[in-house]
Write a structure and sequence with these properties.
The longest helix has 14 residues, at 44-57. By secondary structure, the chain is mainly beta. The radius of gyration is 28 Å and the shape is elongated. The chain has helices at residues 44-57, 244-252, and strands spanning 63-76, 81-91, 95-106, 111-125, 128-138, 145-156, 160-169, 174-181, 184-185, 190-201, 213-225, 231-242, 258-269. A hairpin with a 6-residue loop joins β5 and β6. It has 2 helices and 13 strands, in the order αββββββββββββαβ. Strands 1-2-3-4-5-6-7-8-10-11-12-13 form a 12-stranded antiparallel barrel.
Length: 270
């Protein structure tokens, strides 16, 4: 009807071959105009600056965040302990600088270990980043260790938060860590978080009392209350078990390779 009245001859489903519309090349005139039509009416330099500003405000924003995943005290059969785990980043949606730190020690006792990581992070898919950098371990006994680090973090289907990393030390020791956690929202304020962590080693590391294979497993369940989105105290249970030769090292020191602890702490971000 439109063609009969002198309208444009636009392909429709009537002209389709099979399930596809007829594809025609764009008219030659379409390639003669500038890439941005506004450049025909305004100064191209002014429009280029405006497009750059629009990109900065809508998709290329530089921001910074800090997450205190755990700041807690633990109580169990062994000595009462404290632990922290925090991380943060600065950058845009694609490229970021990440830092991570964690450590633990005995309340009224010695510090066991401190770990710090500095990482370059790049988004490779929606919800997934690959990371690479260095990790430095500090120990009171002087057995400080430096590692090269490669890892992957992201959110799996059904909102499981996953983290996996491999560490190659300057001594040639290869270890790895796999973590998974999930936030089960019970109400708008109460959140139950199960978590699982596996530690692995490609070889025996006697000086660190670590055996080869899966060296330890840690499972926990924490219930937190969000006073605000940025601040939530929690209480929970954490079970850990050393495995294989790593458990033998623990027994040789007179320690139980299995431990269950009540934990109390806070989670925050800003």
């Amino acid at each position: 009807m439109g063609a009969m009245r002198g309208g444009p001859n636009i392909p429709t489903s009537v002209d389709a071959v099979g399930d596809r519309l007829v594809e025609t090349p764009p008219p030659a005139a379409a390639r003669t105009a500038p890439a941005h039509a506004a450049d025909l009416l305004y100064d191209p330099a002014v429009m280029a600056a405006a497009r750059k500003q629009l990109l900065a405000e809508n998709g290329d924003i530089r921001s910074t965040a800090v997450f205190i995943d755990a700041l807690e005290a633990g109580f169990g059969d062994s000595a009462d302990s404290y632990r922290w785990s925090a991380q943060g980043w600065t950058g845009g949606d694609i490229n970021r600088f990440w830092w991570k730190t964690e450590g633990e020690g005995e309340i009224d006792g010695k510090l066991h270990e401190v770990e710090f990581q500095a990482l370059y992070s790049r988004a490779i898919a929606p919800f997934w980043d690959v990371q690479a950098g260095v990790r430095q371990d500090f120990r009171p006994d002087g057995e400080d260790t430096t590692h090269l680090t490669v890892g992957l973090i992201g959110v799996a289907p059904y909102w499981f938060e996953i983290g996996a990393a491999a560490f190659l030390s300057t001594e040639g020791d290869l270890t790895a860590r796999i973590e998974a956690e999930y936030d089960q929202r019970l109400t708008q304020k109460w959140i139950l978080q199960p978590a699982l962590e596996l530690a692995l080693s490609a070889s025996d590391i006697p000086e660190l009392e670590i055996g080869s294979g899966v060296t330890s497993v840690t499972a926990s369940l924490r219930l937190r209350y969000e006073i605000r989105k940025e601040f939530a105290p929690y209480v929970g249970l954490e079970w850990s078990r050393s495995l294989g030769d790593t458990a033998d090292y623990a027994r040789a020191r007179g320690h139980d390779p299995e431990d269950t602890r009540l934990v109390v702490g806070v989670k925050a971000w800003f």
